[in-house]
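pasting for the record
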Amino acid sequence: MSLSETADKDLLRRHATGGDKEAFGELFRRHRERLWAVALRTLSDPEEAADALQDAMINAYRSAARFRGDSAVTTWLHRIVVNACLDRVRRRQARPAVPMSDRLPEEATRDHPGAHAAVLAVREALAQLSFEHRAVVVYIDMLGYPVADVAAILEVPPGTVKSRASRARSQLATLLADDGNRPGPGDVRSIGPDTHHTPKGGTS
């Protein structure tokens, strides 16, 4: 069976027990896009996000043997990325000063008149939220994760995820209303992963 056809847990086991670097490389390549999207959206800064993702993958590479298998490998990887982002937020001890990328998905600007200004406004408002509130919006509204999965990744009860999501959306609505740029339905969800910035390579 080729690496591309091997299940996530088997790839991780091959790396942890046999030192198969190619197996871990395949695991990272398989999930890189979404892990990068999470880091970028939660930190709002491509350089910080790239560093956080690199830190997370090094941590995952070194701690693979401690994976207990009581959750999906993707959940485990996302949790490590979130923790790496949170570590950087704590070290900064301040909200991000750099706004999110102003590059927009082509389909968003094509299909919705005025989408450019609306999406930029959402990104700027999102950058003002706390890490905890921003994370749930990123996972639920931007990446489409179910509440149960977000709860597992963030290691909090589903009810906490729901309350954070509700509060985050309320804060976004207030920020956007104050800015005179309230988004229409679905505008937050239209901001997909930013593919114009490439994260630094992981371990291999």
